[in-house]
Specification:
This protein has three helices and two strands; from the N terminus they run ββααα. Helices cover 45% and strands 11% of the residues. The protein has helices spanning 16-33, 55-60, 64-72; strands spanning 6-9, 12-15.
Length: 73
């Protein structure tokens, strides 16, 4: 089934393509009006292993130091 060319809104018929073009223009204008927010400090590359970058991964995969501490107990 093919899409209808017109959309009825409030009892008036509108061309679907015209509405989509107008919406794209709205979004482009909105994006252009948004100020760019600079970083407050220099961002550094996270050099930790992938397993240590988040708390969930650290819990799932304990590191060598954690394993050594558990053995000493």
């Amino acid at each position: 089934m093919k899409r209808p060319e017109t959309i009825i809104i409030g009892g008036r018929a509108y061309n679907r393509r015209v509405i989509l073009d107008m919406r794209r223009q709205q979004l482009d204008a909105w994006k252009a009006a948004q100020p760019e927010q600079p970083a407050l400090f220099a961002l550094k590359q996270d050099r930790r292993p992938a397993a240590e970058r988040s708390a969930a991964r650290r819990y799932q995969e304990p590191s060598l130091l954690v394993l050594m501490q558990e053995r000493q107990r």
